[in-house]
Amino acid sequence: MLWGIPPGLLLILGVLLVPLLPGAWRKAYMTILPLAGLWALAGAETGVFYTFTFFTYEIAPVRIDGLSLVFGYIFHIAAILSVVFAWHNNDTVEQMAGLAYAGSGIGAVFAGDLITLFIYWEAMATTSVFLIWARRSDSAFRAGMRYLIIQVGSGVLLLSGAILMAHQTGSVAFDKMTLGNLATWLILIAFGIKCAFPFFHNWLPDAYPEASVTGTVFLSAFTTKCAVYVLARGFPGTELLIYVGAAMAAFPLFYAAIENDLRRVLAYSLNNQLGFMVVGVGVGSALAINGVAAHAFAHILYKSLLFMAMGAVLYRVGTVKASELGGLHKSMPLTTIFCIIGAASISTPLFAGFIAKSLTLSAAAKDGYPVIWLILMFASAGVFLVSGVKIVYFAFFANDGGKRCKEAPLNMQIAMGLTAILCVVIGVYSPWLYSLLPNDVAYEPYTLSHVINQLQTLIFSALAFALLIRFKFYPPAVNSIYLDFDITYRKWLPVLYKWIVSLVSPGWKSMLQDLRNGLHRMVAYMFRHHGPEGILARTWPTGSMALWVALLLGGFLLIYYS
Amino acid sequence: MLLAHLPALVIVIPLICAPLCVLLRGKDWAFIVALLATWASFACSVLLTIQVMKVGTISYAMGGWAPPYGIEIRLDALNVFILLIVSGIGSVVAPYARNSLLLEHIEERAYMFYCAYLLCLCGLMGVAVTGDAFNLFVFLEISSLSSYVLIALGSDRRALTAAYQYLVMGTIGATFIVIAVGLLYQATGTLNMADIANRLPEAGYTNRTVIAAFAFMVIGAGLKIAIFPLHQWLPNAYTYAPNIVSAFLAATATKVSVYILLRFVFSVFGVEFSFVSLPTAIPLLVLAVLAMFLPSIVACFQTNVKRVLAYSSVAQIGYMVLGLGFVSVAGLTASILHLFNHALMKGALFLVLGAVFYRIGSCNIDRMAGLAKQMPWTMAAFVGGGLSLIGVPLTAGFISKWYLILAALEKGWWYIVVLIVVSSLIAVVYVFRVIEAAYFRDAPDDLVNVAEAPISLLAPAWILVFANFYFGVETSISVGIAERAAQSLMGAG
Q1: How many structural domains compose chain A?
Q2: Which of B165, B232, B269, B436 to mutate to test the interface with A (most CBs of A within 10 A)?
C-alpha cells in the first residue's frame, strides 16, 4: 500500500488536489494517481489491515485476497484508461467525480465488513451521479435524479440488512452468507439493484446513455462490476442466482435489438453480460467464480472500448442514433477499427471475451445446467449481434448518412488503442489473465470443439445479419437477432415477441401512465396541503394556534382522566 | 474558593454583563463585554462538566439557604450537557454578531442587542442549572422575553408579527408551565424539584391535581419545544429573525425546552407516574411520527431556505420526542444525543445562511442559484451541515439516527425503524434542492459578481461544520455524557 493509504482511499483523497493543479499538470497527475495505485496494489500482500473497533463491531477497512485483487487490478486499469480518454475534458467537477467514483469502487472491493462496504457503496452513488449531471441537459438531470434515488435506496437496504445482521450475529463481517432471513434478503436485494437484476435494472439503460461522453466510460466499469464482486463474495453457489442470471442474460437483448440509441444498446448488452456473471456466481464452483472474475475483467475492457468508440462518435457527430449515423468509417477509420476490435472481443476466439466467457459456459455445462447453458449460448450469440455487429454496422457502415467529421481526438485514440491492445493480448495469451484468477483451476479455452462451436454460432449469425441487410429485410433490426439461435425459432419467436409486445405494451403503457398520473396527483395533493399556501405551511392566525393548544390539552386531560 | 461558586457564576456572569453592555453604550465595548461573558460562561460550563463527570451530581445552595427551602442549583450529567450546548453555541455565535448585517440596521442601539443576547443566554442556562421549579419558570421567562426582542430585530417587517405571535404562544406555554408548577405546589407544598419528586408518591398517582399539573406541563413544554402541531409559531419566528438570532435560537431554545420536558416527565413526575399509570407514550409517539413526516414534506416545497430549515427543525424535534417516547435508556440516550447533534447541524446551517444573506441579501432558493461558484467555501459548509442533517455516516447526524434505530430495534419496533429511514430520505430531498440550485444552476444575472463571505462569518460556520464531523467520528464525549444522563433520568423514576 502506497504510504500506508488503503487502496481506493488513495484516489479519493488524491482527488482533493485536482482543483489546485493547472491544466497539463492536472492531467498528468490524474493519470499518475491510478497508476500509482495499481503499482502499489501489485506489490500488496494479502491479508486484513487497519482493523479497529467501532460501536463494539469489528471493522476491517482493507481485506486483500485473490478475489478482491482481480477486481482491484481491473478497476485501476479502467480508471487509467478512462482518465486518458477524458484528457480533452476540462470540466473540474467531472474530473473529480470520475476519480472519486473509481476510488469508491476500488474501496468497496477491498471492504472487509458491511459498514465499510456501505460507506463506499453510497460514495459510489453520490460521486457517479455527477458524471450524469455533467452533461448538463435537462433529461440528464432528471435521469441522474432517478439514478441517485435508486442507488441511495440500494445503500439504505444494505445498511438495514447490515444492522439487522449485526443485531442477530453480533458481527458485521462481510463473508459468504446464506439466504434465509430478512437480513440476508435485504442485502441480496441491495446487491441486486446495483447489479441490475431483472425488474431492478431500469436505472442502467435509463442513466448510462444520459451521462457525458467521458462519464459513461467511467460508469460502465465500476458500479455493476462492484455488484458482481459483492455477489461473488457474499452469495456464491446460491441457486436462485442461476435463474436470475439466465433471465438477465436473455431479456435485455430484445430491448437492445429494437433500440435506436446506440449507447443505450450498449447499456442493454452490458446488462446481458452481467447475467453471465450472475449465473457464474450462482453456480459457485471454483471454475465458475474464476469465470466470473475473468469475465468481469474482460468485460470491463471491451465494454469500455465500445463505450469509448460511441463516445468518440457522439463527441464528433453529436448523436449516436442508429437512424442518423452511417458511413462513418470514411471519416473515422481508426475509431472504426477499435470499435470492431471491441465488438469482436465480446466472444470471438483470440479476443478477451472468449477466454473469459468460456469459463462460465463450461462451468454451467459441467455442473449440469443444460438449459442454462443453452440460454447462455443464445445470449452469447445474440449479444454479439445486437451490440457488436449492430453497433459497428449502423455507426460506421450502413447507408452513408452524409455526415463528415474529423477523426476522434488523439487522447481518445490513445485510450481506445490501449484498450484494444489489452483486449487482443488477453485473448491471444490466455495464461496471463488466468494467472490472476482467485482459484487454482487448470483450464484450456482453445480446444477444437470450443473454437468451432463458438465460430459456428458467430459466423452463422453474422451471415444471417449480412443476408438480411443484403436483401433489405430490415429495419426492423429485430429480425436479425433470432437467426443465429436455431432455425425453428427463426419464424415464430419474432412473431411471438411482437405479439406479446402488442399485447402487453398498451397495458404496460397505460399502467405507467396511471402510475405517473397517480404520482402527479399525489404531488399535487401534497402541494395543496404542504406547499407554501397549504394548510400546513401558511401562517395561521394566533387564535387557531391557541385553539390547537387548547384542543391538545383537552385531549390529554380526556385520556388521563378516563 | 471560586470553583465552589462555579454553578452560580455560570449564570451570574451573563446576568451582570447584560446591564454592563447598556451602561458602556459603545458598540465595540458592548461587543467585547458580551464576547468575554459568553466565553467565560462556556469555560465555566466546561469546568462544571469535568467536575460532574468526576464526582457526580453537584448541589449548590443559593445564598447559603439550604434546600428545599432555599433555591438550589443542581447539576447532573443532563444539566451540564445542556449547559455545554447553550454556552458552546453561544460562544461560537457571539463573534459572528459583529460582522453580520444585523448591527448595521440598528447601528446606534447595538448595545441593546448584546444586552438582550446575554439575557437570553443567561435565561437559557438558568433553566438548565436550577433545581427549583418556580425558579425555572422565571429563567424561562427571562430567556423568552429577550428572545422576542431578538426576533423582532429582523430587517423584514414581518419579523414584528412573527415576534408578536411567538410572544402570545410563548406566553401561553409559560403560563401552562406556571399553572403546572402551581398545582404541584398545591399538591406537595414544595417547589424544589427533587423534593417534589420525593413527595409526589405521598400525594398519590391518582390525585387529579397532579394529573392536571402533568397535562399542563406536557402541553406547556410541548408548545415551547414546538412539538407538531404546536409548532406554528416557529417557522415565522426563525425565518424573519436576524440570521444570527435564528442560528442561536434554533440551536439552543428548543433544546432547553426539551430539557424541561425531560426533567419534569422523568425526574419530577417519574417514569412510574408518567408512563405506567398514565398513557403518555403513545400520544407522544404519534405526534413524533407526524412531526417527522408532515413538516419535512412542507420543507420540500418552501422557497425560502431559512424556512426550509425551520420546518426541518420541527421534523428533527420529532426524532427527539420519539426517543423520549421509547421510555428506555437507549431511547433517552438517542434523544439527548440528538439535542446536541441537532444543535451542531442547525447552528452551522443557519450561520451559513447568514453568510449567504450577507452577500446576496436573500435566502431565497432561486437567488442562491449558482452560488457555489462565487462562494465556494460558504456552500461547501452548507453541504457539510446538510450531510449531517440527512444523517450520512461519519457525521453527527448519523450517530443520532444510529442510536435512535438501535433503541427502536431494542423495543422490536420494525415499523418505527422504517419510518426513521424513510423520513431521512425526505431530508435528502430538501437538502439536495438547495445543493442542486447552488451547484448546478446558473446564477441570476444581477448576482454574477458576488464575493466570498468574510472570514469572520465563515470561521464560526466552519467550526460548527467541523464539529459535526468530529462528533460523527469521535463519539466518546457526546455519547458518554448522554448515556449517563439517560441512565440517571431512568433511574430517578
Answers
A1: 3
A2: B232
A-contacting residues of B 267-286, CB under 8 Å?
278-279, 283
To the nearest whole Å, the CA of A137 is away from the closest chain B CA by 11
In a domain, B79, yes or no: no
* Domain span including residue A168: 1-235
Cβ within 8 Å of residue A527, ≥6 positions away: A534, B301
> How many Å lie between the alpha carbon of A373 and the closest alpha carbon of chain B?
41
Grid cell locating B91? 460562544
Distance CA B481, CA B484 (A): 5
**A559: which chain B residues are within 8 Å (Cβ-Cβ)?**
278-279, 283
| A369 confidence band (pLDDT: 50, 70, 90) | confident
Contact call for residues A376 and A246 (beta carbons, < 8 A): yes
Segment B445-478, tens digit of pLDDT: 887 788 888 888 899 999 999 999 999 888 888 8
Chain B residues within 8 A of A140 when measuring between CB atoms = none
pTM above 0.80, yes or no: no
C-alpha cell at A433: 489473465
Examine the fold and report which residue of A206, A235, A264 is the final residue of a domain before the chain moves on. A235
**Entry field: residues in chain A:** 562
Radius of gyration of chain B (CA): 21
Show Cβ contacts of residue A365 under 8 Å, excluding neighbours closer than 6 positions.
A373
Within 14-73 of A, beta carbons closer than 8 Å to B belong to 55
Contact predicate A69/A46, CB 8 Å: yes
* Virtual torsion, Cα B23, B26, B27, B33, nearest 10 deg: -50
Residue A489's pLDDT band (cuts 50, 70, 90):
very low
Q: Do residues A51 and A125 share a domain?
A: yes
Q: Which residues of A touch B298 (CB under 8 A)?
A: 530, 534, 536-537
Q: Find, among B303, B299, B298, B306, the residue nearest to B156 by Cα.
A: B306
- The DSSP 8-state label assigned to residue A45 in this structure reads P
> Quick check: A119 contacting B, CB < 8 Å?
yes
State which of A235, A259, A291 marks the end of a domain.
A235
A125-147 pLDDT tens trace: 999 999 998 888 888 888 888 88
For B155, counting Cβ atoms within 10 Å of its Cβ (0-12 exposed, 13-18 middle, 19+ buried), the class is middle
Examine the domain organization and report whether A304 and A326 are in the same domain.
yes
Closest CB from B219, B421, B425 relative to A549: B219
Task: Provide the domain limits for residue B299.
Answer: 282-493
- What angle (nearest 5°) sits at the alpha carbon of residue A403, between those of residues A398 and A407? 100
Q: How many CB pairs under 8 A join A and B?
A: 98
The overall longest dimension of chain A from CA atoms, in Å, is 89
Mean per-residue pLDDT of chain B: 89
For residue A402, what are the CA distances in angstroms to A175, A263, A317, A396, A435?
56, 21, 11, 11, 47
**Helix (H) / strand (E) containing B360:** helix B329-360
Residue A63: beta bridge partners?
A: A48
pLDDT for A360 beyond 80: yes
Residue A474 and residue A253: Cα distance in Å, rounded? Answer: 17
Residue A497: inside a domain: no
Nearby residues of B9 by Cβ (< 8 Å), 6 or more positions away: B2, B44
B25 interfaces chain A, CB cutoff of 8 Å: no
- Using alpha carbons only, give the angle A168, A173, A179 rounded to the nearest 5 degrees: 60
Which residue's C-alpha cell is 451542531?
Answer: B344
β A47-49/A52-54 pair status: unpaired
Asked if the structure places residue B413 within a domain, the reply is yes
Q: Which of B160, B315, B342 is nearest to B229 (CA)?
A: B315
In terms of Cα–Cα distance, which of A371, A368, A349, A369 is closest to A358?
Answer: A349
Task: Clarify whether residues A246 and A211 are in a common domain.
Answer: no
When divided into structural domains, chain B yields a total of: 1
Q: Which amino acid is at B406?
A: L
Nearest CA in chain B to A554: B215
